[in-house]
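User: Structure please.
Assistant: Input sequence and predicted structure:
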Amino acid sequence: MSTAIESAAGSRAVTRPGWLRSKSFDLNFIAVASGVAVLTGLAALIDDAVFKVLLFLDLWLLGYHHVISTFTRLVFDWKSFREHRFLIVELPLIITAATLAGVLICGQWILATVYLYWQWFHYTRQSYGIERAYRRNADENATINDYVTTRALSLVPIFGIVFRSWQRQDRYLGMEIRYLPVPEVVVWIVGVMAAAAVGWWLLQCGRAAWQGRLAKAHFGYLLSHHAVFLIGYVLIPDITSGWLVLNVWHNIQYIMFVWYFNNRRFKEQVDPDAKLLSTLSQSKHVFSYILLCVTASTGIYLLVHQTTTSYMDNSLIPAAVTAMMVINFHHYVVDGMIWKRRKPAAAA
């Protein structure tokens, strides 16, 4: 018996964890980001005053910063600006016109409704992209069932948005909202499918772990993905507090991933064609990078708020809210386009 056990143990593979950058970076990216997000959402349930403070901190330190992070790939050097001119100049005008038309035709509820569903898709899509990055970085000896993994990754968020649509709370982020019609039986069906997919995925991971072939970083990221989507969309009863969980998680990860991408792109060197961004993307300048993004985002959002409050306060359309939604919608479109344009230096 002991000989058989020793033989089995000896045959087990030894795999690298598959970190994106390093153990410390990835633990912050996976564990700290999801932990802070969940704790923020739970704290927001205490009372309305606590929620308002947490919302302010999330938007100022994370939300605005995460949107500005997108522009580090668009406007931090002339080459990028010329390449992405349409996304920077014409696209905002198109999205502004479309958003205003939507509000005038449908009413103010269209803002919250489109935001809920588009944001859900944006978050799910980003998480899938990060999962793929961990998949590519996994040890070649690791065992990952892509079919099971992607089904579980997709079905948990689908269950979340189906549940919120069935729940039909009257207000979302203080705004009137309407939902896609979802009968209760659909919630049960999708919930069972999601549970089965996650259960199947866990069995596959358990088997891989027993064989010494578990992609640990990939597993840890997916575990946080399932937990955050389930807690944010289902287990926290209030839709807005649940939104805070997803928003904090998404913002932290987006900021970190964009910096990681830029750091990897420039390889700790200064690019003559992108001196500012390549300098800020070096590891020793990470705090300067964050400070610049926070300062820029604060200035831009204060300008937007001041402009909409001063000149459009008597408008039939809620100007400040509409402006923020335009910025968000523009970010969603740009984000969906620029991450498909893979740079040779960033290829895995």
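The two ends are 44 Å apart (CA to CA).
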